[in-house]
Amino acid sequence: MNLEKIMTDLEKKHPGEVEYLQAVREVLESIEEIYNENPQFESAGIIERVVEPDRILTFKVPWVDDSGKVHVNLGYRVQFNNAIGPYKGGLRFHPSVNLSILKFLGFEQIFKNSLTTLPMGGGKGGSDFDPKGKSNAEIMRFCQSFMLELWKMIGPETDVPAGDIGVGGREIGFMYGMYKKLSREHTGVLTGKGINWGGSLIRPEATGFGAVYFAQEMLKTKNQDFKGKVVAISGFGNVAWGAALKVTELGGKVVTISGPDGYIYDPDGISGEKINFLLELRASNQDIVKPYSYEFPNAQFHQGKRPWEVKCDVALPCATQNELGKDDAQTLVKNGVMCVAEGANMPSTPEAIEVFQEHKVMFAPGKAVNAGGVATSGLEMSQNSMKLNWSSEEVDMRLHQIMKNIHEQCVKYGTTADGYVNYVKGANVAGFLKVANAMLDLGVL
Ligand code: NDP
Ligand code: 2IT
C-alpha cells in the first residue's frame, strides 16, 4: 500500500475535508501491514473502493419558525458501504455539520458496525440545523421536512438511521411519524424509537453503558476495576449520562461533565438526582452546564475550559470530534491517567493519541468503545423483525457480551511485542478484515 500516494490523491479529490481525511489516514495506517500481507485486497482495489461512499444524498430542508419566518437548512445522507448489511448509522443535527464531518462519521461507522458482529453496513446523515433554543413545534416541523426527502432513500433492509448529536428520542419520534405516514408501513426503519412504538429497552443508555463495559475490560487487563476510580467525562448528552450512571453503579466517581460553555467539577461526584437534573437541562434545549453550579453549590464551573485539566484515573471524552488535543493529553498523563476510552467519535486528535501511546496509557478509540449504541440499535432491529420485545436484562446482557467480544478482538489484533494493547490498530484491523473479505466475496461493486 502506498499510503502517502493514496492520501495525496484523496486530498486532491476532496480538498478541505479535514475530518474525513483524518479518519481515513488513521484507518489506513493501522491496516497497512495486514493489507500488504494480503495481495488479494490490492488486486480487488479494496482501499480505493472502501474510502469512497457508495452515494451521497444532499437536499434542502425548508421549514417555518413559530413567527412565520421561512428557513432553509441542508440535509444529507451518506450511504458509505453495505458489504455486510444495510447502511446503518446516526443523524446529526448541529450547525457545524458539513460533508467532511458526515463522511468521517460514515467511514468510521463501517468498521464500528463490523466490530459489533451484527450485520450492519455503514452510513451517516444529518443537517446543519441548530436545535438549540428551538420550540418543540419548530423541531417537529424541521424533522418532518427533513424526512419528506430522506424517506425515499431509507428502509428496514436498505438504510436504517438513528440518533447522534442533536438527535434523541424526541427527534426520532417526529421523523419516524412522518416516515410511517409516507411509507404506510410500521417497519421500524429508525432506531432509538420510543418504547411504546417499537423501541428497545436500554437503547437510550446503551452507548454510555457500552463505553463503560469496554473500559471495565481495559481495566481488567491490569487487574483493576472502577471501584474508587475518579472519572472525568466531557459532554452531557446521550452518551455522557449513560456513562455517568454506569460508572457510579460500578463504584467509580464521576467528577466532571462539560458543555460548549465550559466544564463542571463536582468533587462530590455526579450521580443520582444530579444526572436527572442534567437530563432536564438537555430536555430544555439549553446546551450549557453552568446552571448545574447554581443547583449544586459544591460544584465549580470553569468557563471556556475543558475537563482534561482535572486529575483523574479514567477519562471518557463523550462530546465531539477533536475535543482532546496534545496539550490535554500531556496534562492527563502528567496527572496519572490510567485509561482513556472514547465515548464520542474521534474526540482525540492524532497528536493526543500519540502522547497516550508513547506513555503506554491504555487508550481505546470511539469505534470500539462507543459501538454499544449502534449494537443496541441492531438489537432493536432484530426485535422489530421478530415483532418481539426483550426485557432490559436481556438487552443489557447481549450488549455487555458484545462489548466484551469487541475488546477481545482489539486484544487479538492489537497486542504488540511488549504486551501493550494498541486498541486503535486492533479495532481497525478487526473491523476492516470482515468488511474487506465480504467485499472480495461480493465482486467489484
Ligand atoms: P448530544 O447532542 O446529546 O451531546 C453532544 C455534546 O457535545 C453537547 O454538549 C454539544 O454541545 C457538544 N458539541 C457538539 N458538537 C460540538 C462542537 N462542534 N464543538 C463543541 N461541542 C460540541 O450528542 P451525543 O451524546 O449523542 O453524542 C456525543 C458523541 O458521541 C458524538 O461524537 C457522537 O457522534 C457520539 N456517539 C453517539 C451515539 C449515540 O447513540 N447517540 C453512539 C455513538 C457515538 P453544543 O451542541 O452546544 O455544541
Ligand atoms: O455514532 C454512532 O454509532 C451513533 N450515533 C449510533 C448509530 C446507530 O445507528 O445507532
Question: Overview of this structure, please?
Answer:
This protein is globular. A hairpin with a 5-residue loop joins strand 1 (55-64) and strand 2 (70-81). The model has no long low-confidence stretch (mean pLDDT 96). Helix 2 (18-37) packs across helix 17 (423-442) and helix 6 crosses helix 7 (169-183). The chain folds into 2 domains: 3-186, Rossmann fold (3-Layer(aba) Sandwich), CATH 3.40.50; 205-364, Rossmann fold (3-Layer(aba) Sandwich). The protein has helices at residues 3-13, 18-37, 39-43, 46-50, 99-115, 136-150, 169-183, 203-220, 238-249, 273-283, 291-295, 326-334, 350-358, 366-369, 371-386, 392-414, 423-442; strands at 55-64, 70-81, 87-93, 122-127, 159-162, 230-233, 253-259, 262-265, 300-303, 314-316, 339-341, 362-364. A 7-stranded mixed sheet has the order 9-8-7-6-10-11-12, sandwiched between helices. A 5-stranded mixed sheet has the order 1-2-4-3-5. The chain is an alpha/beta fold and 445 residues long. NADPH dihydro-nicotinamide-adenine-dinucleotide phosphate is lined by residues 94, 96, 163-166, 207, 235-240, 259-260, 287, 318-320, 343-345, 370, 373. The site of (2Z)-2-iminopentanedioic acid has 12 residues, from strand 3, helix 5 and helix 15.
Could you provide a short overview of the structure?
By secondary structure, this protein is α/β, with parallel strands linked by helices. The protein is 48% helix and 15% strand.
What is the element layout, followed by pairings?
Layout: H1 3-13, H2 18-37, H3 39-43, H4 46-50, E1 55-64, E2 70-81, E3 87-93, H5 99-115, E4 122-127, H6 136-150, E5 159-162, H7 169-183, H8 203-220, E6 230-233, H9 238-249, E7 253-259, E8 262-265, H10 273-283, H11 291-295, E9 300-303, E10 314-316, H12 326-334, E11 339-341, H13 350-358, E12 362-364, H14 366-369, H15 371-386, H16 392-414, H17 423-442
Parallel strand pairs: 3-4, 3-5, 6-7, 6-10, 10-11, 11-12
Antiparallel strand pairs: 1-2, 2-4, 7-8, 8-9
Bound molecules: NADPH dihydro-nicotinamide-adenine-dinucleotide phosphate and (2Z)-2-iminopentanedioic acid.
